[in-house]
Amino acid sequence: MATPENRGPNASAVEVPGYSGEQLHNARVVIGAGQALRLNTKGIAIGVMTAMGESSLLNLAHGDAVGPDSRGLFQQRANGAWGSDADRMNAAVSSANFFKALQGVDGWEDLRPTIAAHRVQRNADPYHYEKYWPEALRLVSALLGVTGLQDCYGTGPRLTGRGDDLPWRNSVYCQLDTTCPAAAVSPLGMYNRECVDFALWRLNSMSSSTSSPWKLHNSLLGLGNAMDWEAGWQRHGWETGNEPRVGAIAFFSPGVAGAGKLGHVGVVSAIRSDGRVTIEEYNGKPPPNDHRYGIRSIRAEEASSYLYFPEAFEP
């Protein structure tokens, strides 16, 4: 991981396109509170990301329909955990209280930023903050005068692999209309080089499990064929939805968007500015190009649903 380079400008004089004076002032307050508690830059950026997602970096004196008693940069509730109303409306105090709660989250530094923030805020959507992470890094980079944050911390939930990284990509696989050889079963309990085999490999990789014993194995999860994955997700109580997220599984019911009779799954690797979704997959084409790695762009609505990365398997 690259080490951020500190250029050390006068932060109070920095202007960042897209942010008003009040937002920049509040971002500096959040950063200062994190520094006072000796948080690293990732922790500080998580605080800025959370304030972006909760209040757009504005010190709001009101809540919303879900939390009418919420106040301040972090929309902290009047439940006694965040101090008095004056504390919640004080940007420095509310920021410090957020960071103290973050420090109390077990293993927060190893969590995906949106999950770390969620465990403090308890947002209804654990991935609510995800889309603010790239902007938080940009803003913190500008105000701290550092470079290299994108290399260190990425621009969102990181896929630990990209491209054809299936470890057994040259293994024997099941030919159509033939008996599958015993060697065609992958280390994950799927048939080698099927769409589900690649998707399960990527889920393991994202959970920092790249060798036996695997965190996610078909014998434990019982996911089976692609057409059964959505029901499997729901059976395990994992989140599904219609909005694509990087790292989610794009699920295609049988016959949808070219999927065969057993359905199809791919891994969302990017969401473009025009709303199209890039997915990586195996066995997405008919013979003779089957059982190979592929990448393609789809409209978000082409997938039947999206199966979100199970929080229980966060590294």
Radius of gyration: 22 Å
N-to-C order of helices and strands? EHHHHHHEHHHHEEEEEE
Percent of sequence in beta strands: 5-15%
Strand order in space, largest sheet? 3-8-4-5-6-7
Outline the biggest β-sheet: 6 strands, antiparallel
Termini separation comes to 17 Å
Number of strands: 8
Structural class: alpha+beta
* Model regions low in confidence, pLDDT < 50 over at least 5 residues: 1-11
Please give the share of residues in helix: 25-40%
Task: Give the overall average pLDDT.
Answer: 88
Query: Which overall shape is indicated by the principal axes computed on the Cα atoms?
Result: elongated
Put simply, the count of helices is 10
Describe this structure as you would to a colleague.
- The chain has 315 residues and is of the alpha+beta class.
- 31% of the residues lie in helices and 10% in strands.
- The strands form two sheets. Strands 3-8-4-5-6-7 form a six-stranded antiparallel sheet. Strands 1-2 form a two-stranded antiparallel ribbon.
- Helix 1 crosses helix 4, helix 2 crosses helix 5 and helix 2 packs across helix 6.
- The radius of gyration is 22 Å and the shape is elongated.
- The N terminus is likely disordered.
List the helices and strands and how they pair.
Layout: E1 5-6, H1 21-36, H2 41-55, H3 85-88, H4 91-103, H5 113-121, H6 133-144, E2 146-147, H7 149-153, H8 195-206, H9 218-221, H10 229-235, E3 240-241, E4 249-252, E5 264-271, E6 277-282, E7 293-298, E8 305-307
Antiparallel strand pairs: 1-2, 3-8, 4-5, 4-8, 5-6, 6-7
